[in-house]
Description:
Low-confidence stretches: none
Strand order of the largest sheet: 1-2
Shape: globular
Number of helices: 13
Largest sheet: 2 strands, antiparallel
Strand content: under 5%
Mean pLDDT: 87
Structural class: mainly alpha
Order of helices and strands: HEEHHHEEHHHHHHHHH
Amino acid sequence: MINIAFACITAFVITFLAIPSIIKVAIIKNLFDEPGERKSHKSSIPTLGGLAIFAGVVFSFTFWSSGFDFQNGQYIIAAIIVMFFIGIKDDIIELTPEKKLYGQLISAVIIVLFANIRLTNLFGIFGIYEIPYWISILLSIFTILTIVNAFNLIDGIDGLAAGIGAIASFAFGLWFYNYNQIALSILSFTLFSSLLAFLVYNFSPANIFMGDTGSLIVGLILAILALNFIQLSFTSPPYAFPFRSSPAMAIAILIIPLFDTLRIFIIRILNKKSPFKADRNHMHHVLLDMGLSHRGVSITLYSVNIFFILVALWLRDISSLVLFMILGFMAVLFSLVPFFFRNYTKSKPVNVKVS
Length: 355
């Protein structure tokens, strides 16, 4: 517990103190995220905030996890460093989507093949349990890439990605602590603390953005935590935890980025557009168009994410497939609420006072 506490303090202090210097450098070197048609901000905002998150997480995790039996730590750091260089280059000199994907693939392969962090079982979903080795590798790489890019896509307004990442990492951190996985708990809580420090500067009105450097790193760490969470929930006693539906629980913890990405892809395909073509149909854009402020949108989506986690926790003893269906139904209903209110407001008659 002492190591976790010191890791949190270290990560927070490093991130908090690094950001003002990064802002100064960004101003001197003219490294800004400029306003645009799809952008929600109206002025030039310094980017590269992910550099501070990277420093806080990597230093704190490396320093304070020392001494715990965690043989995969060096591979996790290696994968994070690869993702860091992909993100930092994209923030300074925009990369093509193909080059970004290659970098993400390298990180995913390091995690799956070298760290051996992968899904080995579907735990009864659709009646499937243990899966072949090569399917396990491909499914795990796909899962990592999905989470990384889903998190990257929700980084569209002040405070949203950092807040959702903090909620998810805190939830994973509590579970790993109760499961006596101290190294993974330290990784979770260092990310949580770094994101809290970043939110001081990023919550609306934002003074800095995390950029791809931050969103890719945060997405990768959350993917690593999610895969470990799913696998460890089904290990043998004495560490067994009464949790039948950990795959669905992992979805609930990451529901905002995962469902919004799925929803966006479906909308684009139905509109006969490329699923990778950017637009303003994300849920945070819809809520902004309803008149909510950046703070209002972020707090609303924080609340929804926490609600989904609590529902999944309450229903943790049912099968993953049933919980998947319940979460999916709830997510669809939630996504329709803004459109209902928008249409209701438009159709509501306006009373004109005649004098």
